[in-house]
Amino acid sequence: QAVVDFERLGEHAAAFQGHDVGFCCLGTTRAKAGADGFVRVDRDYVAQAAELARAGGCKHFVLQSSRGADAQSRFLYLRVKGEVENLVQAVGFDRCTILRPA
């Protein structure tokens, strides 16, 4: 287990090296983090972790998202979830699984 500082995620690239499969269930709530904090955690941190995982050799990335995720949604939560799905898919993993629980 590696403990990383998400504000300095790039400094922890070694923690993402040598893994075939990556799982991401990272998230917060707008109530806990505010709108900007929610976007930073649920989109920015996740996208950066996916990029580091791919650079470290990860072939299959599994992302927990949300039912109704849509980058065009007028609702912040669903829009951010849709945006991060698009960002993770664009990283270029051999396989990308997106789970959308209710």
Automatic annotation (TrEMBL):
GO biological process terms on file: import into nucleus
SUPFAM superfamilies for this protein: NAD(P)-binding Rossmann-fold domains
Stretch forming the signal peptide: none
Sequence ranges assigned to domain NAD(P)-binding in this UniProt record: 4-102
Gene Ontology cellular component terms for the protein in this record: cytoplasm
GO-annotated molecular function: catalytic activity
Gene3D superfamilies: NAD(P)-binding Rossmann-like Domain (3.40.50.720)
Organism superkingdom: Eukaryota
Quaternary structure (record): Monomer. Forms homodimers during oxidative stress. Interacts (via N-terminus) with elongation factor EEF1A1 (via middle-region); the interaction is direct and competes with EEF1A1 binding to guanyl-nucleotide exchange factor EEF1B2, thereby inhibiting GDP for GTP exchange and reactivation of EEF1A1. Interacts with nuclear transport receptors XPO4, IPO5/RANBP5, IPO7, IPO9 and KPNB1 as well as GCN1L1/GCN1 and LRPPRC probably through their HEAT repeats. Binds NCOA5/CIA.
Protein name: Protein HTATIP2
Organism: Mystacornis crossleyi
Upper taxonomic lineage: Eukaryota, Metazoa, Chordata, Craniata, Vertebrata
Gene name in the database record: Htatip2
